[in-house]
Amino acid sequence: MKEVFRKQGNRLIREYDSEKLWIEPWGENSLRVRSTFHAEMEPQDWALLEPEEGTAEITIGAEKAIVQNGKIRAELTSAGKLTFYNQKNEILLEEYVRNRRNIKAFCSALKIDAREFQPHLGGDYQLTLRFESNPEEKLYGMGQYQQPILDLKNCTLELAQRNSQATVPFALSSLGYGFLWNNPAVGQVTFGKNITEWKAESTKQLDYWITAGDTPAEIEEAYAKATGTVPMMPEYGMGFWQCKLRYQTQEELLEVAREYKRRGLPISVIVIDYFHWPKQGDWRFDKDYWPDPEAMVKELKDMGIELMVSIWPTVDKQSENYEEMLRKGYLTRTDRGIRINHDFLGNTLYFDATHPGAREYVWNKAKQNYYDYGIKTFWLDEAEPEYNVYDFDNFRYHIGPNVQVGNIYPAMYSKAFYDGMTAEGQKNVVNLVRCAWAGSQRYGALVWSGDIDSSFASLRNQFAIGLNMGLAGIPWWTTDIGGFHGGNPDDPEFRECMIRWFQYGTFCPVFRLHGDREPHQEPLGTSGGGLCPSGADNEVWSYGEEAYEIFKKYMGMRERLRPYITRLMKAAHEKGTPPMRPLFYDFPEDQEAWNVEDAYMFGPDLLVAPVLQEGTASRSVYLPQGETWKDTNSGELYEGGQRITCETPLDTMPLFVRVDAELPL
């Protein structure tokens, strides 16, 4: 069946019946695979950037065709089965086929295809892609899922964006490959013991990217070249960020900033949260509560503090901008029911971040009302977006139905502000955003883990999430220290949780305090920025003297580490290296390092072992092979390749440095 194959430049094409299948090099040691049953292949590259020119070796035979690109080789049989190998001739990934067309390989009467396109009424498809499963494989990445699981093998994950869930569909395998599901459709992936299945509820074609590498770092760097890297983190981004739900007035926020300075505490960023505006979609300060933004920004800058301001993508039907945005087609649509997406303190729609005109419109409002005052960093909230009901099939965007393209929304939201800020000449763009998709990192997206519970159980979730987000290609990540929902600063049990979370947060890429603390304060008014209540105090002095002294200790550590953190951020910018990563990233030859799910590396020299359980007096720590490690708390030296027990009084979290690193802790 040689006639089913043909070569077109660097691309191998197989055409059989109505399917067109393309395999082509897409970066060093990497291949892109696309398939469709439509007349033409869709042109979108989605998360992928155009690769540098490269040449693959394509061989076409009677029974199979081969594409070789560096360390990866794809073999495609005339019957349509696709298998990927590395340079050692080891199988990386093999399509799961159970039919009678593969008689010479494995004949089955089940009639199950690897690439299954089930047509929807009207023309597009539900897509299922199947691979054989290696039960010994470990899998990491995939974004942010609220579970305490680092190795995702045997997990089923929804491919959809929700508040506190971010689908970033890149998986790093212990077998030596990385796999990007380059499709923004809502769907599901199952990394089963018996089969791996990727599903899209509605799509026009199959699109994925695969790379081979000898180490996790090599795979991660190839993925970063394919999808982009973060900008360089600005200097202020590496310090301490103060935030709460919510500072209600200009004077309240300034007084908190002044108190940090009076106490001699390091602070780099302070944040104005939501409902500082008259109406959602106005994108400006309510002058009743924020009378002089320009003077506020100047006073903060004089103190060496950057101001971050919350942006919501919601547009109230009473907003001054609603009618114009409706007329121009800049708002999301519903296919059924009343055209309301969100009803928090108003009937609102989301601006359509997939529409270039809508992105420019929202940025221009933000520029006029915030950026021109000197505000250079934004908090892009509600970025999933957070529909009142997650009926993914009921919403429609400029570029297509939500069920088909919706996962790209947060990336386009980040792009709106990144494009606007870089057009103004800003280089080191960083914006806090509540969701992400593959490629979001190149738009300066600093992702945080959303509205999470304030508990040790939630802290354990964040530990796994932060590491998997980094491996999914999102190196800038943070949490609300202490969690978001609840937590009373006067409660001794919550104070313990807060202290342990603060210790962990010190060694996250961004060190940020936030939360909706109890008890709530009453709203200040009945309109505009006065409508919304506020949580209890959430400054470092709000948790009692013991906690305050511990917080100061770790804030000092963070400040002393800023030169080291700058190097980590440079590596993220240049190579896509996640600042926080599992032990196996730096020690791939140490098999025990692949089993450690309670400690991580913060850069190449610092091993962090957070306290993740309440009432913990001591904990075990594994020290990787091949290094001598110094306990920063006791000063003792240990040879790697062993577990040791560390005492963990409330003011102490186990930290180890490579003995020759000389970090100032």
Automatic annotation (TrEMBL):
Q: Which Pfam families match?
A: Gal_mutarotas_2, Glyco_hydro_31_2nd, Glyco_hydro_31_3rd
InterPro entries attached here? Gal_mutarotase_sf_dom, GH, Glyco_hydro_31_C, Glyco_hydro_31_N_dom, Glyco_hydro_31_TIM, Glyco_hydro_b, Glycosyl_Hydrolase_31
Q: Where is the Glycoside hydrolase family 31 N-terminal domain?
A: 27-186
Q: What are the protein's GO molecular function terms?
A: carbohydrate binding; hydrolase activity, hydrolyzing O-glycosyl compounds
Source superkingdom: Bacteria
Domain named Glycosyl hydrolase family 31 C-terminal: which ranges? 576-659
Keywords of this entry: Glycosidase, Hydrolase
Q: Name one GO biological process term.
A: carbohydrate metabolic process
Q: Which residues form the Glycoside hydrolase family 31 TIM barrel domain?
A: 231-566
Q: What family, per the record?
A: Belongs to the glycosyl hydrolase 31 family.
**The protein, known as:** Alpha-D-xyloside xylohydrolase
Provide the species name.
Sediminibacillus halophilus
Lineage at the top is:
Bacteria, Bacillati, Bacillota, Bacilli, Bacillales
